[in-house]
Design goal:
444 residues; alpha+beta; Trigger factor, domain 2; 5-stranded antiparallel β-sheet; 4-stranded antiparallel β-sheet; 47% helix; elongated
């Protein structure tokens, strides 16, 4: 079999394929075996019908050849795709041009292929990830959490600040309802906790014991109520003095220095893991923004959306749920779900196109040795031989897909090493911190 490709307009390619007579004979034999097991002819058992009898039953050699061509065309097309290394993204339009009755079979396949996208700015990418750096203030705040367990309350006569404990009488009257008012005496409220209603934490700051606060706030279900707060007492938490003696009596450590070092080490390792976990998604998101959404083929987006919908259905089935229940629990309708899935699909396709563009821009195409090495690794993971996997890739027309996946892995590694990482404040992050191995127990 021989195949050539011709580039057409609008991301389409035409394959011209020639199938020699020996391959057609093989296809006819395959079709004969299949049909002999399907048709019923008096005097013969299924699967034992002679070829000439079968041809006569079907209407002659031409009918059998037609059946063979119909069955074999998908395989011939898949081999042509593999041999020409085109990257189809939709079903082909196939037209048989000659050879339907005898001789060499000629057919053409017109198919949409993945567009080649070009990017600029990959060397200037600044990717925001959580900072792996732990500050002294953060360590001190963590130490204070330990001290708070042994804190005492001290009455204060000053304006209220966040963190104070305020004792108050609370009166709540719903507006435009028949619900009786609610009164709570000596209610103790930690300023900043947000457990009364929205707006309290902002308005109570600066007030003092003996003053009152009145505001309207939501109580849920679209109902609004008037809140009247009579502030009776303000207390602050007085933390115990941080000393080796206190540390020994209240923690697992033996000294303040040991406690501080242990907390710093644990926080640092957790921060690095957090930064490492966010690296890949953040990098790919930044790279994808170099690709305009306008160049994303709708056929790819639709295919990705359908795949995500199938995956959701499979996961719901495993949890013994149905889509209707899922929509109710997530408070959305089917249109909203599809819109979300489509938006995710667009992002995924942009990432894919951007990685492929990076491969071209930075000349990261894998060598034959790299392809073979990855093929051996994949085959071992699948518990099959490399030759079997290689044959399967050609038979299914996925040679180019496998090469592309290897290339995209190289592109991902290039990105990891070449983008600039910054924290949420825009401060550049030392790349060596992100390479630290944090495999040891984080609960230490």
């Amino acid at each position: 079999m021989r195949a050539t490709s011709t580039i057409l307009e609008n991301n389409r390619v035409k394959l011209t394929v020639e199938v020699d007579e020996p391959e057609m004979e093989t296809a006819i034999d395959t079709a004969t075996k299949k049909l002999s097991k399907q048709v019923s002819i008096k005097g013969f058992r299924k699967g034992k019908v002679p070829k000439d009898v079968l041809m006569a039953h079907l209407g002659g050699p031409a009918a059998l050849r037609t059946e063979a061509i119909r069955d074999a065309i998908p395989d011939f097309y898949a081999h042509a795709v593999a041999d020409t290394l085109i990257d189809p993204i939709a079903s082909p339009e196939i037209n048989i041009t000659s050879g339907e009755d005898d001789g060499i079979l000629f057919f053409e396949a017109d198919v949409e292929v993945r567009p080649e996208v070009f990017i600029r700015g990959q060397h200037e990418l600044r990717v925001t990830i959580p900072s792996p750096v732990v500050t002294d203030d953060e360590v001190n705040a963590q130490i204070d959490h330990f001290r708070e367990t042994d804190a005492t309350l001290k009455d204060v006569d000053r304006p209220i600040v966040t963190g104070d404990l305020v004792t108050m009488d609370v009166h709540v009257q719903q507006i435009a309802t028949d619900v009786a008012p609610v009164d709570m005496g000596d209610f103790m409220y930690t300023v900043g906790s947000g457990t009364i209603t929205e707006g309290v934490d902002e308005l109570i700051l600066g007030l003092k014991a003996g003053e009152e606060l009145k505001l309207n706030g939501a109580v849920g279900g679209g109902v609004v109520a008037t809140y009247e707060l009579k502030l009776k007492k303000v207390q602050e938490r007085e933390l115990p003095e941080l000393s080796d003696q206190w540390v020994q009596g209240n923690t697992e450590w033996q000294s303040e220095e040991e406690m501080r070092d242990a907390i710093l080490d644990q926080m640092r390792r957790m921060r690095i893991v957090e930064a490492q976990m966010s690296q890949r998604d953040a990098v790919l998101r930044a790279l994808s923004e170099l690709v305009s959404e306008d160049v994303v083929p709708d056929v790819l987006v639709q295919a990705e959306t359908n795949e995500r919908l199938r995956d959701l259905g499979h996961r719901l089935e495993q949890q013994k749920l149905n889509l209707e229940t899922f929509l109710q629990v997530t408070n959305q309708n089917s249109d909203q779900l599809l819109e979300t899935l489509r938006a995710d699909a667009v992002r995924a396709v942009r990432v894919d196109l951007a990685l492929r563009a990076l491969v071209r821009a930075e000349e990261l195409e894998p060598t034959d040795e790299e392809i073979d090495e990855e093929l051996e690794t994949t085959a071992a993971a699948m518990k099959v031989t490399a030759d079997l996997l290689r044959t399967n890739l050609r038979d299914t027309g996925r040679v180019i897909n496998f090469r592309s996946e290897v290339a995209k892995m190289k592109a991902s590694r290039w990105l990891t090493e070449n983008v600039t990482y910054v924290d949420p404040d825009g401060v550049e992050i030392d790349r060596t911190l992100l390479k630290t191995d944090q495999s040891e127990d984080l609960d230490a």
